[in-house]
Design goal:
The structure holds two protein chains of two kinds. Chain A is mainly beta. Chain A is built from three helices and nine strands; from the N terminus they run E-E-E-E-H-H-E-E-E-H-E-E. Chain A is globular, with a radius of gyration of 15 Å. About 4% of the residues of chain A have low confidence. By secondary structure, chain B is α+β, with helices and mostly antiparallel strands. A four-stranded antiparallel sheet of chain B has the order 1-3-2-4. Chain B starts with a strand and ends with a helix. Helix content of chain B is 24%, strand content 34%. Classes of the chains: A mainly beta, B alpha+beta. Chains A and B meet through strand 1, strand 2, strand 3 and helix 1 of A and strand 2, helix 2, strand 4 and helix 3 of B. Strand 3 of chain A pairs parallel with strand 4 of chain B, so a sheet runs across the interface.
């Protein structure tokens, strides 16, 4: 059973985590995100995905509709994403426009919770994460 | 601008700014410890504009996040 420990800042209003996205050339990008059970699936900002070459352009339609900035407008399969030390290959995520004031480029959603047992130890400011498929196995 | 700085120093020197950071070091939990700030601006568009740096890069914001959840955000904009 592979249980990983990830620290987070309990002074913040949400659980902020930093992850690694690797492009096909093997270049690593360190991305700031928030663990969000209100997001059905993991989303990445179009700003980040355009800059790193995963998509070619942002959707201008989304920018032109006030109040719909969070509307997911595409899907993309990222070749490799590492969240809480767990490497996930071919991770399908939504492309979204994020409010810049959020200060993040990713929302880690329920699809992550479906793959991993996530224990929040708030008093110690740590996340304990274990791949679901390995639960019950001896390490 | 090629001097390596700690994350704490970056927050002091570039308050409420978006940063593109190279030659970065992460701690065991993946949090940024130090790096070289290649670009910085209060405008996200300016920092994320192409061309990319074509090397490992960290993307960070030094201010406080205003994220309050997708549901709250939708409610504020009368989507719900």
């Amino acid at each position: 059973m592979q249980e990983n420990i990830t620290s987070y800042d309990t002074n913040k209003h949400h659980i902020h985590i930093d992850m690694i996205v690797t492009n096909p050339k093997g270049i690593n990008y360190s991305v700031a995100g928030i663990l969000d059970t209100g997001a059905p699936r993991t989303e990445f900002s179009d700003h980040f995905l355009v800059h790193t070459g995963f998509i070619e352009t942002k959707s201008e339609k989304v920018n032109l509709k006030p109040g719909l900035q969070t509307q997911k407008y595409g899907k993309i399969t990222l070749p490799s994403v590492t969240i809480c030390h767990h490497k996930i290959n071919f991770f399908e995520v939504f492309v979204s426009h994020f409010e810049p004031s959020w200060g993040i480029d990713a929302l880690v959603g329920l699809d992550f919770f479906r793959r991993f047992r996530v224990t929040i130890d708030y008093s110690n400011g740590i996340l304990l994460t274990t791949p679901i498929g390995t639960l019950g196995q001896n390490s | 601008m090629d001097k390596k700085m700690t994350w704490s120093d970056m927050k002091t020197k570039f308050p409420d700014e978006w940063l593109l950071i190279t030659d970065f070091k992460l701690d065991k939990s993946g949090h940024l410890v130090a790096g070289v700030v290649e670009r910085h601006s209060r405008k996200k568009d300016e920092v994320y504009q192409l061309p990319a740096l074509n090397k490992p890069t960290a993307f960070r914001y030094t201010g406080e996040s205003t994220f309050s959840g997708l549901r709250d955000h939708a409610r504020e904009h009368n989507i719900l």
